[in-house]
């Protein structure tokens, strides 16, 4: 979409303002704008959105990209998962710790969460237990490079909790997200043969 022409310009919103209006993470606003799912245009490196068109969407059930929160203390894993899931059609946010993840979930609602068991000084189990009042276990998957799941045994007994073992290919993660959100992703799946396996930390 190109910038509107004419002497009377409509009032424009920034991506941050749109995120607040639609109650979406700002990263998701960028994704939806780039894929043509939000009415907007670029001005240099920034996006602008006509206020009147955005306000029409406020009370409309918004069906867009599945929103995913990736929680892992390894930067490389976060980056690779972000890239693979974005290419597959997801809108992805990341967190490196329990505190960062809780801050993200207080601000935004996610369709699926990928949580590493080992989070530096924190624990993925601790995070899942904190989130159980807001999210069902069916919306979460744990990532682990450990040979056993003794730490997660109490959670696994309470309900279905998906486990992704390191190393894994991006296509496995995409398939996992499809299972968690209950629908196929719109974009092409990440190609396991063309992308590196994600190797374990802990």
What report would you give on this structure?
- This protein has eight helices and ten strands.
- With 202 residues, the protein is α/β, with parallel strands linked by helices.
- The strands form three sheets. It has a five-stranded parallel beta sheet, sandwiched between helices. The protein has a three-stranded antiparallel beta sheet with strand order 1-3-2. It has a two-stranded antiparallel sheet with strand order 7-8.
- It has two domains: 46 residues; 115 residues, Rossmann fold (3-Layer(aba) Sandwich).
- The protein is elongated, with a radius of gyration of 18 Å.
- Helices cover 36% and strands 19% of the residues.
- Strand 2 and strand 3 form a beta hairpin.
Q: How many distinct helices?
A: 8
Describe the biggest sheet?
5 strands, parallel
Counting helices, strands and paired strands, the structural category is: alpha/beta
Measure the end-to-end span: 45 Å
Number of domains: 2
The gyration radius over C-alpha positions equals 18 Å
Unreliable runs: 187-196
Mean of pLDDT: 81
Note the run of SSEs as H and E: EHHEEHEHEHEEEHEHEH
User: What characteristic shape results from the CA principal axes?
Assistant: elongated
Strand content: 15-25%
**CATH class call of the largest domain:** Alpha Beta
Task: Give the secondary structure arrangement, pairings included.
Layout: E1 12-14, H1 15-22, H2 26-34, E2 41-43, E3 46-50, H3 51-57, E4 67-71, H4 75-87, E5 91-95, H5 98-107, E6 112-116, E7 118-119, E8 122-123, H6 124-131, E9 140-144, H7 153-158, E10 162-165, H8 170-181
Parallel strand pairs: 4-5, 4-6, 6-9, 9-10
Antiparallel strand pairs: 1-3, 2-3, 7-8
